[in-house]
Amino acid sequence: MARIPTAAFLVAVSLCTAAVVTRHARAQETADEPEYTYRRGADNGPERWGLLRVDWAACYWGRQQSPVDVPGGSSAPGPIRYGRLSQHYRPAPATMVNRGHDIMVRFDGDAGGLLIDGLNYRLRQMHWHSPSEHALDGRRYDLELHMLHQTDKPSNKSFAVVAQLFRIGRRGDATLRMLEPYIERIEDRRKGSAEEIDYEVDPRRPVRRSDEYYRYTGSFTTPPCTEGVVWTVATRIGHVSRHQVDLLRDAVHDHARKNARPLQDANGRAVALYYNWPLRGRGNTAATSDLN
Ligand SMILES: [Zn+2]
């Protein structure tokens, strides 16, 4: 067995001690070591999520993963369709939860939902990623809101996510402004820490003004990276203040300050551009065909 040089041994010991001290100081945050992180190149980093657990295999082997780069502008993203984004949201009681890797607003009452291709999706929760996970024409934005919906009956398309991208501007986001005190309260708290919100959260505000949206079939952007998720990405970019982005980054655990999964291969998937027209109609009646 090779003899460890004394100096190297002492350095190793002091590094371990430092690690223990730091760890102790942040015991609250690291009491539950994250199973996966956003640290590129780490053993449990995003490139290796699918190798960490058998039920996360889709993260590595899946062919319909999210997020993706949505080509726009001069290069048409894919088929153009017409169909109103049929939202029927309503304000509902909600709870703010620190999930370690993100900050989530969980709806505890009936917040309404979406009608897509005849399927009714109920709004379950919303959460934020920073920077944005989806890119438009190769460009990532400062923040992305995900509104996660689920059908009452299980199917091969049980989940739908509506995504809203934001860039930093002078005006902040009105929904986040109302949530700021609660985000501050759960900052750096243990995974699963929750704060009940004193008022009903209105899900109609964040994506109300988008006239066009992209639609494609993808996956969850966190393990288990389940596929068959119906994605709707609003083309209109919202505004958020730097303070609001910083607040969300400070509130999550250190490994997730930048909690955007790297872009995934499209693998031939088409992204359809939908015009929110007719504004009054029967929903997606003109856009019922599958994309793939
Ligand atoms: Zn998300």
Automatic annotation (TrEMBL):
Catalytic function, reaction form: hydrogencarbonate + H(+) = CO2 + H2O
SUPFAM superfamilies to which the protein is assigned, alphabetical: Carbonic anhydrase
Domain (Alpha-carbonic anhydrase) ranges: 34-275
InterPro entries documented for this protein: Alpha_CA_prokaryot-like (IPR041891), CA_dom (IPR001148), CA_dom_sf (IPR036398), Carbonic_anhydrase_a-class (IPR023561), Carbonic_anhydrase_a-class_CS (IPR018338)
Named cofactor requirement(s): Zn(2+)
Entry EC no(s): 4.2.1.1
Keyword flag Metal-binding: yes
CDD domains on file: alpha_CA_prokaryotic_like
Signal peptide interval: 1-27
PROSITE patterns (UniProt xref): ALPHA_CA_1, ALPHA_CA_2
Keywords from the named record: Lyase, Metal-binding, Signal, Zinc
Enzyme class: lyase
Keyword Metal-binding in annotation: yes
One term of GO molecular function: zinc ion binding
Transmembrane segments: none
Top-rank taxon, per record: Eukaryota
Family assignment from sequence similarity: Belongs to the alpha-carbonic anhydrase family.
Functional description taken from the UniProt entry: Reversible hydration of carbon dioxide.
Name the record gives this protein: Carbonic anhydrase
Organism from which the protein derives: Brachypodium distachyon (Purple false brome)
